Amino acid sequence: MKKTLVLLLAVLTFQFATTSTSFAQGDKALDKIESVGKKHSSITGSLTQVRTTAAKAKIDMAGTLYYTDKTQFAINYTTPAGNRTVINGQNMLLIAKGKNQKFNLPKSPSMQKLADFLIDAMAGRVKKIATSNNADYTVKEGGGTYTVEMTAKKKAAKGFASIRLVYRQSDCVMTEMETVDFSGVSNQYKMTDIKVNTAVDETAFKF
Q1: Residue in 112, 67, 68 with CA at minimum distance from that of residue 92
Q2: What is the DSSP letter of 1?
Q3: End-to-end Cα distance, the chain
Q4: What superfamily does domain 2-205 belong to in CATH?
Q5: N or C terminus of the chain with fewer C-beta within 10 Å?
Q6: Of 47, 30, 53, which is closest to residue 180 (Cα–Cα)?
Q7: What tens digit of pLDDT does each residue of 80-125 get?
Q8: Minimal CA–CA distance to 201: which of 48, 74, 49, 38?
C-alpha cells in the first residue's frame, strides 16, 4: 500500500511538473510574440476570409489587409467588391452590401471591443485578448508557427466563444485567425504575400 501511494505521488508530481513547464513555455512564447510585435511598424498582405453562418452557409471573401502601430487597421475587400473595415484611432467604418456604418468607438462599447481585438491580434498582444475574452488558452509550437487556441470560460454578451491565432515563429507576424461567436457564426482569415515594416498608403485608413 505504501509503495502504491509513493508511486501515485511520483506520477502526480511528474504530471504537475510537466503541466507547469508547458504553461511556462506557452507564456514565454506569448511574451516573445508581444515583444517582437512592438517592432512591427506596419503589416500588409493579401487576405482570404471564409465566413460561416449559424446555418452553416459559407461566404468566401478576399481583399487586402493593412495595419500600422498607430492603431490603424483596414481590410479593403475585392470580394465582395466595395466592402471595407477600417479602424483609425477612435473611429471605425464598416461597409457591407452598400450599407455604410460609422462608429465613435468610445461611445460604442461593442465595436470598441471588436476594434481592440483586431488591433491587439495584429500587435501580438495575445494575453490581453485572453483577459478581455475571459478565456483559457493553450499554445502549440510546430511547423514554424505558434498556434494559440482560446476558449471562453463562460458565455457572454460580447466577445467570442473561441479564438485561434497563428503567428510565424520567425518574425511573430500573424498569418491566420479564426473566431467563433457565441451565436455560432465563425470567421476564418488567412494572410499571404505579407510585407512588414514597409510604407503604407494612408488612404487605406481614410473614411
Answers
A1: 112
A2: -
A3: 74
A4: Lipoprotein localisation LolA/LolB/LppX (2.50.20.10)
A5: N
A6: 53
A7: 999 999 999 999 999 998 899 999 999 999 999 999 999 999 999 9
A8: 74
Distance from chain centroid for Cα 163 = 7
What distance in Å separates the CA atoms of residue 69 and residue 58, rounded to the nearest whole number? Answer: 32
Strand 135-142 relative to strand 99-104, pairing: unpaired
Distance in angstroms (rounded) separating the CA atoms of residues 143 and 175: 13
> What are the structural domain ranges in the chain?
2-205
One-letter identity of residue 92: M
Find residue 60's DSSP bridge partners.
Answer: 50
Instruction: Give the distance from CA 3 to its chain's centroid.
Output: 48
Return the H-helix or E-strand segment holding 60. strand 58-68
Kindly state the percentage of the chain with pLDDT values over 90. 84
Q: SS3 string of 101-154?
A: EEEEHHHCHHHHHHHHHHHHHHHCCHHHHHHHCCEEEEEEEECCEEEEEEEECC
Nine-digit cell at 175?
498569418
Over residues 46-63, the pLDDT tens digits come to 999 999 999 999 999 999
CA angle 90, 182, 164 (to 5 degrees): 75
| pTM listed for this prediction | 0.87
Q: What is the overall mean pLDDT for the chain?
A: 90
Q: Provide the grid cell at 164.
A: 485561434
Cell triple for 203:
488612404
